[in-house]
Amino acid sequence: MKAHEKIKFIRRSQNWRQEDMAEKLHMHVKSYAKIEQGKVDIPSSRLKKIAEALGVELGQLVDSNEKSVINFIENFYNSINNGIVEQHECKHELEKVHLIIEQKDKIIEQKDKEIAYLKEIIELMKKESAS
User: Fold this and answer.
1) Terminus-to-terminus CA distance in the chain, angstroms?
2) What angle, 0 to 180 degrees and rounded to 10, lies between the N-to-C axes of helices 64-81 and 44-54?
3) Taking the CA of residue 6 as centre, how many other CA atoms within 13 Å lie in the half-sphere pointing to its CB?
4) CATH of the domain at 27
5) pTM of this prediction?
6) How many structural domains comprise the chain?
7) Do 75 and 42 share a structural domain?
8) CA-wise closest residue to 4 among 30, 31, 41
9) 82 φ, ψ to 5°?
Protein backbone atom coordinates (compact mmCIF):
# COMPACT_ATOMS: atom_id res chain seq x y z
CA MET A 1 0.00 0.00 0.00
CA LYS A 2 1.39 3.39 -0.98
CA ALA A 3 1.68 6.32 1.43
CA HIS A 4 -1.31 8.20 0.01
CA GLU A 5 -3.45 5.07 0.28
CA LYS A 6 -2.39 4.53 3.89
CA ILE A 7 -3.19 8.15 4.72
CA LYS A 8 -6.67 7.81 3.26
CA PHE A 9 -7.26 4.48 5.00
CA ILE A 10 -6.19 5.77 8.42
CA ARG A 11 -8.20 8.98 8.01
CA ARG A 12 -11.32 7.00 7.12
CA SER A 13 -10.78 4.57 10.00
CA GLN A 14 -10.92 7.57 12.33
CA ASN A 15 -14.15 8.75 10.67
CA TRP A 16 -12.56 12.01 9.57
CA ARG A 17 -13.48 13.84 6.40
CA GLN A 18 -10.91 15.28 4.04
CA GLU A 19 -12.05 18.68 5.25
CA ASP A 20 -11.08 17.70 8.82
CA MET A 21 -7.58 16.70 7.74
CA ALA A 22 -7.13 19.78 5.59
CA GLU A 23 -8.08 21.95 8.55
CA LYS A 24 -5.64 20.13 10.87
CA LEU A 25 -2.87 20.62 8.31
CA HIS A 26 -3.78 24.25 7.55
CA MET A 27 -4.25 23.60 3.85
CA HIS A 28 -6.97 23.77 1.23
CA VAL A 29 -9.23 20.73 0.88
CA LYS A 30 -8.40 20.40 -2.84
CA SER A 31 -4.67 20.32 -2.06
CA TYR A 32 -5.19 17.68 0.60
CA ALA A 33 -7.41 15.64 -1.74
CA LYS A 34 -4.57 15.55 -4.28
CA ILE A 35 -2.33 14.01 -1.60
CA GLU A 36 -4.82 11.20 -0.96
CA GLN A 37 -5.26 10.66 -4.69
CA GLY A 38 -1.51 10.25 -5.15
CA LYS A 39 -1.42 13.15 -7.61
CA VAL A 40 1.40 14.98 -5.82
CA ASP A 41 4.66 14.04 -4.16
CA ILE A 42 4.42 14.58 -0.43
CA PRO A 43 7.35 16.52 1.03
CA SER A 44 8.80 14.88 4.14
CA SER A 45 7.85 17.89 6.28
CA ARG A 46 4.19 17.55 5.19
CA LEU A 47 4.31 13.77 5.67
CA LYS A 48 5.48 14.29 9.26
CA LYS A 49 2.60 16.69 9.91
CA ILE A 50 0.12 14.21 8.42
CA ALA A 51 1.49 11.44 10.65
CA GLU A 52 1.15 13.71 13.70
CA ALA A 53 -2.41 14.69 12.75
CA LEU A 54 -3.36 11.03 12.31
CA GLY A 55 -1.61 10.05 15.55
CA VAL A 56 0.70 7.52 13.90
CA GLU A 57 4.44 7.12 13.47
CA LEU A 58 5.94 8.36 10.21
CA GLY A 59 7.18 4.82 9.52
CA GLN A 60 3.58 3.60 9.38
CA LEU A 61 2.92 5.83 6.37
CA VAL A 62 6.02 4.95 4.38
CA ASP A 63 7.69 1.64 3.71
CA SER A 64 11.34 1.12 4.57
CA ASN A 65 12.57 2.06 1.09
CA GLU A 66 10.67 5.33 1.12
CA LYS A 67 11.78 6.00 4.68
CA SER A 68 15.42 5.42 3.74
CA VAL A 69 15.17 7.78 0.81
CA ILE A 70 13.48 10.45 2.95
CA ASN A 71 16.16 10.11 5.63
CA PHE A 72 18.88 10.26 2.99
CA ILE A 73 17.42 13.41 1.44
CA GLU A 74 16.94 15.13 4.81
CA ASN A 75 20.43 14.25 6.01
CA PHE A 76 21.89 15.28 2.69
CA TYR A 77 20.01 18.60 2.70
CA ASN A 78 21.05 19.35 6.29
CA SER A 79 24.66 18.50 5.49
CA ILE A 80 24.68 20.79 2.47
CA ASN A 81 23.23 23.62 4.55
CA ASN A 82 25.95 23.07 7.15
CA GLY A 83 28.65 22.97 4.46
CA ILE A 84 29.71 19.46 5.40
CA VAL A 85 29.13 17.53 2.17
CA GLU A 86 31.46 17.86 -0.77
CA GLN A 87 30.53 17.09 -4.36
CA HIS A 88 32.31 13.72 -4.48
CA GLU A 89 30.49 12.62 -1.32
CA CYS A 90 27.15 13.51 -2.93
CA LYS A 91 28.01 11.47 -5.99
CA HIS A 92 29.08 8.53 -3.82
CA GLU A 93 25.81 8.61 -1.81
CA LEU A 94 23.76 8.79 -5.00
CA GLU A 95 25.60 5.78 -6.42
CA LYS A 96 24.84 3.84 -3.24
CA VAL A 97 21.14 4.65 -3.56
CA HIS A 98 21.15 3.54 -7.21
CA LEU A 99 22.84 0.26 -6.27
CA ILE A 100 20.25 -0.38 -3.56
CA ILE A 101 17.44 0.26 -6.02
CA GLU A 102 19.05 -2.04 -8.61
CA GLN A 103 19.38 -4.79 -6.02
CA LYS A 104 15.75 -4.42 -4.98
CA ASP A 105 14.67 -4.58 -8.65
CA LYS A 106 16.65 -7.83 -9.09
CA ILE A 107 15.01 -9.32 -6.02
CA ILE A 108 11.56 -8.39 -7.33
CA GLU A 109 12.38 -9.89 -10.72
CA GLN A 110 13.54 -13.12 -9.06
CA LYS A 111 10.35 -13.27 -6.99
CA ASP A 112 8.25 -12.79 -10.15
CA LYS A 113 10.07 -15.71 -11.79
CA GLU A 114 9.49 -17.88 -8.72
CA ILE A 115 5.79 -17.02 -8.75
CA ALA A 116 5.51 -17.92 -12.44
CA TYR A 117 7.33 -21.21 -11.80
CA LEU A 118 5.03 -22.07 -8.89
CA LYS A 119 1.97 -21.30 -11.00
CA GLU A 120 3.25 -23.73 -13.63
CA ILE A 121 3.70 -26.41 -10.98
CA ILE A 122 0.16 -25.83 -9.71
CA GLU A 123 -1.25 -26.18 -13.24
CA LEU A 124 0.69 -29.42 -13.79
CA MET A 125 -0.54 -30.81 -10.48
CA LYS A 126 -4.13 -29.91 -11.41
CA LYS A 127 -3.75 -31.72 -14.75
CA GLU A 128 -2.29 -34.78 -13.05
CA SER A 129 -5.04 -34.95 -10.47
CA ALA A 130 -7.71 -34.57 -13.16
CA SER A 131 -6.30 -37.58 -15.05
Assistant:
1) 41
2) 130
3) 17
4) 1.10.260.40
5) 0.50
6) 2
7) no
8) 41
9) -90, 0
